[in-house]
Amino acid sequence: MDALNALMGGFAVALQPTTLMWGFVGCFVGTLVGVLPGIGPALTIALLLPLTYHVPATSMFVMFAGIYYGAAYGGSTTSILLNTPGESASVVTALEGNRMARSGRAGQALATAAIGSFVAGTIGTLALTFIAPMVVEAALAFGPAEYFSLMVLSLVAVSAVLGNSVLRGLVALSVGLLLGMIGIDLQTGQPRFTFGRPELLDGIEVTVAAVGLFAVGEAAYLAWQGRESKGGEVMKMSGSLWLSKKDWARSWKAWLRGAMYGFPIGAMPAGGAELPTLLSYYTERKLSRHPEEFGHGAIEGVAGPEAANNAAAAGVLMPLLTLGIPTSATAAIMLSAFEGYGIQTGPQLFSQQGSLVWTLIASLYIGNVILLVLNLPLVGLWVKLLKIPPPWLYAGIIVISTAGVYGAGNSVFNVGLLFVFGLVGFVMRRFDFPAAPLIVGLILAPMAEQSMRQALTISQGDWFTFFTRPLSGSLMAISVLLLVLPSLLRVYRQRRDAAKGLG
Amino acid sequence: MTPLRVALLLLVICGVAAWQVTVIPQSLMEMTVGPTLAPAVIVGALGLVALLYGLNALRGREVDTSHAPGQEPLPGANKRLLTLLAGGGAFIALVIPLGFVIPSTVCGMCIARAFDAPFNGRSLLTCGAIAAVFWVVFARLLGVGLGPALPWGI
Fold first, then answer.
1. Low-confidence ranges of chain B (pLDDT < 50)
2. Cα(A150)–Cα(A145) distance, integer angstroms
3. Which residues span the domain enclosing A121?
4. Which of A289, A352, A407, B129 reaches 20 to 30 Å from A202, CA-CA?
5. DSSP label at A59?
6. A residues 22-51 near B, CB within 8 Å?
7. Do A418 and B38 touch (CB under 8 A)?
């Protein structure tokens, strides 16, 4: 009941014209960046961080939430019409969505994606509303040791689960942690890894690293390849945007199942949106009465994964708002926005900034409605955006990235660093290193070190405190399992295959 | 560039970082954990994973995505990459003396060139328009400090 009352208070603020306007801008910009290839919500929020000095916190976070949700909506448009997902979570949507577009049913594919996103987004937000206060209550029992172990779990999970190789994930994570150590040690005031440069005393700006890796790195890789300027085939809008009775009947269960996968997996450390979309796709293929249509444009194959994608977006906000733990690159950048406002994240966020949090959650409900209204009627505009020639698209992305970084502190040094991170991003993209562990490591390194030092001070230097406290020990055990399990499974499979071969 | 060279680069970074750990000044404050422990552990971890990555690369188990079919770079790859980076260099060199719009236009033209657009009047006009619009939106409407638009202080 408390949650419901607080949510009503949140709606009262979120429905004020100014907040509503920021929410609308966020949804519009989010859909735009979801549609455009090479620019995602993490990059967009990072670029908008300089605005945090000028706009009230509530308005800013309502806009960021709109961008985050909007990107999840917009990603489906490129998947369906261009067969090029705007973001990784929309890869599965392209499998059936583009086939539907090719067979003259682009309208129905876009409609089931948009309505499914609305349904699942609302279910995810409802779950966030009622489960988040329970998580906060449980998290209030956390001490520094538990926090440190939770951060270790998040770091390990982000590295082990995201990407194609645990080892490459750990390399990216270690580099991120090392970068997070740059600057003045807050407890002793000693400079670390600064090479005597005063510009590095405050550490590496998250914006610079994120924009460099995601925007400049991606553009550098695509320019180096030289294939982007050839462009892809944009499918024409075909078919009605209204779903037939049969389409509704085939979609609604897939939407609900997608939401059930999306929210819980999204809320787990490094659960992300890729895994639930894949699970949803395979479940729909298994349960469908028309399995022969899969691979040729089955509507369930669009409805389920798109629903899972949007429910996961709500799930990712859960550890961020309740524990202050980012489990994706976008969440990590939102966390640094909280820091920019001097807001302490973690369980105390709900008690100290209750109005902000509940306004943010209320804005998610409103954002879902705005996105449903915005997406389908404006589909013609999104299609036109896909036809922007790559040279002007990437020139715009890099100029806005440079402006965003330069505008944050008028630092030419940071612009130089932006292009250095661009080169790092290029190498990471080419050699298949995931970027998210680097960003999450960069942000969590100082926080984890702080918790570790507090825990060791309390335990008078006893390192076993991380393993002997029940909750902390359990979290550490899960971290170790996540690290060794993939290797053990691989060895088990190799032995089983070898045994079969002998048999 | 090959995965093996990436591993070597990581090991060099590790070496430099290890040297930096040794020059962190000792704190005069008495505390359970000093300022060098976490950096030392992280450098050690990076060294270990870089070594494992290098061993994998030696055995040919690490990937270069540009070797996948249909992903190979077209001729002139390094030139395109350098043109893109030159755009960043131009912005850095010119933004203080010339304000925001001219360096951003030059930067944009270099990026467009990296994506095979010719250096011509059309490119100049398009990139100039992009830079001017961003300056108006960011600096004028949203109040972000991008400095003057042009050298004569608009």
1. none
2. 9
3. 2-502
4. A352
5. H
6. 50-51
7. no
